[in-house]
Amino acid sequence: MKLVNRILGVVLALLLYGGLNFYIGWHGAVWLKSLGVTGVMGLSIYWTSFAVTVFGYILALVIKGPLGRFLKVIGSFYFAILQYAILFLPILDLGLWIASLAGWSVRSHTTVIGTVVLIVFALLLLWGSRNNWSTVVRQHSLTINKDAGERKKLRILVASDIHLGNIKGNRFLKKLSKISKDVKPDMILIPGDLLDGDIEPFKRNQMNETLKSLQAPLGVYAVLGNHEYYGGAVEEFIQLVEEAGIKMLQDEAIEINESFYVVGRKDKTAEASQYGGRKSVTDLLETLNHKKPILLLDHQPYHLDKAEEAGADLMLSGHTHRGQMAPNHWITSRLFELDYGYKQKGKMHALVSSGYGSWGPPIRIGSRSEVLQIDLTFTGNGEKGN
């Protein structure tokens, strides 16, 4: 019975997805007809190409090799078009319907209307691409009221949600390495989703070799995100990353020069039984010396209150991408107490980054590709600020 329900669910989802895309594709066909493309051959080529684009990401799950990679890339870009088409086309159609009731000849202006819509979408995607590839460095200066021995200051570079795969690869990593050399951090932290899911492009393009260029005096530390689990090759990926000189923290803490702790939690995805579960933040921090600063990496920014109560001084997360494409931030802001930026929760500083990379379409609208430069000052004088 469960199998039947799953099959029915998949069929219904595909029908809904197909119906929405037929609605979008119909607009393109109407515009092409206004340009004189009326023959069976021309429209057949259009609908075939459109269908391949629409189902490209799904087809790439079963088609491997260069063709599969190509389908995944065009399918990823199409997700951006799909979102904004669903948002804008019904509004456009409603406006045109009202205009036709008022006596305006919509049909005679189809070519102009379709061309304007096409230009608007192109500009939107160009702007989103610029936001995706043009990385900004967000700077935060924070104070932790704890003694870190002889260390009074600490500069951290944070790069979350890199999503290495078919779209983001070695060139993207080299750019991050250059940013790191400019920032000159004492330590680099990666709060999850270093991998986009499938480990194949990571291995094929030997990205672990490029990862070696990420270096800092006090080391490079990372945690797993949900996408590493989706790929199904967690242990192999961890081995490759650690061979590149990056320590992957899995529900464990490491003390740096007897001055402060870096603590990494397994992702929330690991709570599923097939992944063996994960420790609570209380269990993870209770054995540490709480007189020393505690820096916590937790990919998904849930339960800031529990992290603060457990004794974390700084919690670093990603995952949300700040919605990546507006107005999705309206959703993330309701799912998480803090879906982007900075918040002081009791005595704890919390930072959620929109991420260096992106999932799906390499498009960002209403968000930017970013890394965080965090300058910590350790005072131990009873005053804590930011």
From TrEMBL:
Span of domain Calcineurin-like phosphoesterase: 154-322
Transmembrane as UniProt keyword: yes
Transmembrane parts of this sequence: 7-24, 44-63, 75-99, 111-128
Pfam family, one: Metallophos
Superkingdom of the organism of origin: Bacteria
Keywords: Membrane, Transmembrane, Transmembrane helix
Entry keyword annotation includes Iron: no
Protein's UniProt name: Metallophosphoesterase
Organism: Alkalicoccobacillus plakortidis
